[in-house]
């Protein structure tokens, strides 16, 4: 815990040094739909025949709605994160990390202002959250561990996209800035997340039964699968006008396109690549015992 306290202190200092006010951001009145908003290689159907048959104009339009989906996922992920962090402020078992949780909460709220600002200004909506939560009982320490491991997984996947798109000069400048800004804060959050996850697992897992440990590992695998599925959103394909693309590809509708995209070899390779560092961390620390099927 002494090591964790030192890391928390350094992260607090970094957050204070990088403090900013999103209310001062100068939003353009509109954005040009002819721009790229998602790096082409990160579009969910990239590498599929359906994508190859699309015109450049239609690919760029699709990239806009993919960005709206990505920003919406971030909004929903951070809403849950903010709720969970606030719940743990000054709890007995989070006393060491509470000073940084304030900064974490502040930064996640600012991120939602950017993501929500973009979605509502330029698309007029945020895609709804499709994850479902169920009440259950937990072994001692299990609930906190699962909360922080979910945060870590979600943010590590998101950060891969942020890093790529934050420096992609092809992208619309507002979309690029939001990705760049998010990564700057997330770099600290990821350090914190990995440290807390290892501390909690080391502290509590020895007290868990074999059944609880297997349940935890199954939960992590399920969360990875559910998180990735949201990157393939039929509503995106519908809004981007891909009905004809589906027809030309021999698919019934956008739901068939979603299934085909998830199952496509290029998508599987992409998910494995993006998740690689996070999965390697989970395996190295004994949190997972085998590589999940993505």
Topology:
Elements: H1 2-17, H2 49-52, H3 56-88, H4 98-122, H5 142-166, H6 173-204, H7 210-229, H8 234-239, H9 243-248, H10 254-263, H11 265-284
Please give the number of β-strands.
0
Helix content: 55-70%
Determine and state the CATH class: Mainly Alpha
The fraction of residues assigned to DSSP E strands is under 5%
Number of helices: 11
Any overview of this molecule?
The protein has 294 residues and is mostly helical. It has a single domain (2-17, 46-284), classed as Orthogonal Bundle (Ribonucleotide Reductase, subunit A). The protein has helices at 2-17, 49-52, 56-88, 98-122, 142-166, 173-204, 210-229, 234-239, 243-248, 254-263, 265-284. The two termini are 34 Å apart.
Short description:
With 294 residues, this protein is mostly helical. It has helices at residues 2-17, 49-52, 56-88, 98-122, 142-166, 173-204, 210-229, 234-239, 243-248, 254-263, 265-284. It contains eleven helices and no strands.
């Amino acid at each position: 815990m002494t090591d964790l306290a030192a890391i928390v202190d350094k992260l607090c200092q970094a957050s204070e040094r990088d403090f900013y006010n999103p209310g001062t951001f100068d939003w353009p009145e509109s954005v040009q739909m002819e721009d790229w908003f998602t790096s082409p290689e990160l579009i969910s159907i990239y590498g599929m025949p359906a994508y190859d048959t699309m015109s450049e104009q239609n690919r760029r339009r699709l990239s806009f709605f993919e960005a709206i989906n990505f920003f919406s996922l971030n909004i929903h992920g951070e809403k849950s994160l903010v709720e969970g962090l606030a719940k743990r402020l000054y709890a007995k078992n989070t006393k060491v990390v509470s000073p940084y949780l304030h900064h974490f909460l502040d930064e996640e709220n600012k991120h939602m202002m950017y993501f929500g600002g973009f979605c509502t200004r330029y698309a007029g909506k945020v895609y709804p959250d499709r994850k479902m939560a169920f009440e259950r009982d937990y072994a001692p320490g299990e609930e906190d561990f699962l909360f922080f491991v979910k945060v870590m997984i979600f943010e590590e996947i998101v950060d891969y996209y942020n890093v790529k798109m934050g420096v992609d000069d092809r992208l619309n400048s507002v979309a690029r800035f939001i990705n760049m800004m998010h990564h700057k804060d997330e770099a600290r959050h990821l350090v914190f997340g990995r440290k807390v996850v290892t501390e909690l697992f080391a502290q509590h897992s020895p007290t868990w039964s074999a059944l609880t440990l297997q349940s935890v590992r199954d939960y992590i695998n399920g969360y990875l699968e559910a998180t990735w599925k949201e990157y393939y959103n039929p509503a995106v394909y519908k809004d981007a006008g891909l009905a004809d693309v589906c027809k030309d590809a021999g698919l019934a509708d956008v739901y068939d396109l979603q299934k085909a995209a998830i199952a496509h070899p290029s998508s599987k390779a992409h998910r494995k690549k993006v998740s690689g560092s996070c999965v390697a961390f989970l395996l190295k620390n004994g949190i997972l015992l085998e590589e999940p099927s993505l």
